[in-house]
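Archive entry. Fields below.
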Amino acid sequence: QVQLQESGPGLVKPSQTLSLTCTVSGGSISSGDYYWSWIRQPPGKGLEWIGYIYYSGSTYYNPSLKSRVTISVDTSKNQFSLKLSSVTAADTAVYYCAREGSPNYFDYWGQGTLVTVSS
Amino acid sequence: SYELTQPLSVSVALGQTARITCGGNNIGSKNVHWYQQKPGQAPVLVIYRDSNRPSGIPERFSGSNSGNTATLTISRAQAGDEADYYCQVWDSSTLFGGGTKLTVL
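PREDICTED_STRUCTURE:
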């Protein structure tokens, strides 16, 4: 059974960089069968896809966030990470990591981690 | 840019059939996926590729997609089906509908 777990600071100051890591267990990121995504959900609002990474390191980002987003992968640790720069209060959200199957659906999700942007 | 439209809320009597729609321009030509999200929990995939159920999802959940509307149908609705439901497609980027709150009366 595949499991994903997000980790990282729960509080980030405005203008700083949000950094999160997703650890995958029960399956290998390097299998090449899936993409690995980040999705967020502001409190009381809907879901927003941030972007995905393939085990090779190729990425694809939501155009609305592309200028501020970097997703990377560490296959040796079976982890992938998110960096979101120049954060504002609008970036306060629960951040989920998820496995993306073909075609483009999310079959396994982490439990989510709340990141609050505040001074 | 492509947009998905869902009703904010749908109500259904216990044991009856609920239908949640997801509207989009020619959405019938796209693969539509559906997620169930209960309060404080991560979303769960309930339908993928229009009408396919992942293992562990009851047969009461079904999906269809044609023209400009995709529909998630929940038969014999139970109290445990109360949740937010989101549709999702790919159109140059992954897009989610705004979500529909299902209330079981």
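CURATOR_NOTE: Strands of chain B lie at 9-12, 18-23, 33-37, 44-47, 61-66, 69-74, 83-90, 94-96, 100-104.
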